């Protein structure tokens, strides 16, 4: 039986109790609100460009502009409200494999990565060209402060992780450990042709996760190597800073012990909402070496439950909220 202090299941009843029981209508109301809000999505705009195939997207300047990387190496700046292409930038000679942004007070920094290079742009002045180009690196990602960029070498064995300074444009650190090595082993990488995963920053920007390996940036070597129980397709820190998610496994960052396995996270890429209490997951894209037109028609991709959908999960309990199909 429901306790008098428990939030009602019905959303209208929860809202009517706010004056007495607080903003969420009682105990458990916050979780119920997440379940309600993040299970209901409505399409507001379709963005299409028949002249290119989009490979990655990112918001620029809040939610007003969408930057879309293409298979041909171009970046299209698109009005998110109208869906119109505002500008086309010839950014790379190969497919754009990732786009990352960091908002400043007066502009937005944008990182575009191809298989062999990373370019840093002023998101509000893309037509002026890149601010800097970092060669022989891929999968660039800003730290949360926007002061540094973590990237992965695109050639040579064993692979390395690089740290670049955004202000001076210089490489300030190279991460490599002969025993605790992040990313795939050379034999596996050579067999699949797949580039290593992006390096992920901790919420405090003091730790870096690459593959199964964890670095404390204050010391010169890796500090831990997590066991790999499934094929590694994603790795990230939970925004609370106490957990690491490696594919479908969730690890305690304090004890390095396995906390749980979440099967629906297998072979997915994860993004958290701004408050860190909801996760969005989509089917994992191929590695840089596999990003081809043929990938769009692979049978294994078509069988994935998120082939044409995205899923939301409660980031506190890892419970599924909803799966939203976007195919029309």
TrEMBL record:
Alphabetically ordered keywords of this record = Nucleus
Q: Taxonomically, which superkingdom?
A: Eukaryota
What InterPro entries does the record tag this protein with? VPRBP/DCAF1, WD40/YVTN_repeat-like_dom_sf, WD40_repeat_dom_sf, WD40_rpt
Question: What does the UniProt entry say about where the protein is found?
Answer: Nucleus
Entry coiled-coil feature ranges: none
Q: Its GO CC terms?
A: Cul4-RING E3 ubiquitin ligase complex; nucleus
Main subcellular localisation: nucleus
Question: Mind telling me which PANTHER family this protein's record contains?
Answer: DDB1- AND CUL4-ASSOCIATED FACTOR 1, VPRBP PROTEIN-RELATED
Q: What is this protein called?
A: Uncharacterized protein
Species source reads Chlamydomonas eustigma
């Amino acid at each position: 039986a429901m306790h008098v202090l428990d939030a009602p299941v019905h959303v209208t009843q929860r809202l009517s109790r706010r004056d007495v029981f607080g903003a969420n209508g009682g105990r458990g109301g916050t979780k119920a609100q997440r379940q309600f809000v993040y299970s209901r999505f409505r399409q507001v705009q379709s963005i299409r460009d028949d002249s290119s195939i989009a490979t990655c997207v990112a918001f620029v300047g809040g939610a007003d502009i969408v930057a879309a990387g293409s298979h041909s190496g171009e970046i299209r700046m698109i009005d998110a409200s109208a869906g119109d292409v505002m500008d086309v930038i010839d950014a790379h000679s190969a497919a754009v494999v990732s786009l990352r942004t960091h908002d400043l007070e007066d502009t937005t920094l944008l990182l575009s990565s191809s298989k062999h290079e990373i370019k840093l742009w002023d998101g509000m002045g893309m037509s002026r060209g890149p601010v800097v180009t970092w060669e022989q690196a891929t999968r660039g990602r800003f730290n949360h402060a926007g002061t540094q960029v973590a990237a992965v070498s695109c050639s040579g064995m064993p692979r390395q992780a690089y740290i670049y300074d955004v202000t001076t444009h210089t490489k300030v650190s190279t991460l490599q450990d002969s025993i605790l090595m992040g990313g795939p082993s050379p034999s596996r990488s050579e067999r699949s042709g797949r580039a290593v995963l992006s390096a992920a920053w901790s919420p405090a920007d003091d730790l870096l996760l690459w593959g199964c390996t964890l670095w404390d940036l204050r010391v010169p070597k890796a500090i831990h190597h997590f066991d790999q129980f499934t094929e590694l397709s994603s790795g990230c820190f939970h925004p609370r800073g106490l957990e690491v998610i490696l594919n479908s496994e969730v690890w305690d960052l304090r004890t390095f012990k396995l906390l749980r396995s979440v099967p629906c996270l297998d072979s997915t890429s994860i993004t958290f909402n701004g408050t860190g209490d909801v996760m969005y997951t989509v089917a994992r894209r191929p590695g840089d070496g596999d990003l081809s037109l043929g990938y769009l028609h692979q049978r294994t991709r078509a069988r994935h439950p998120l082939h044409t959908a995205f899923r939301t999960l409660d980031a506190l309990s890892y419970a599924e909220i909803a799966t939203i199909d976007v195919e029309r």
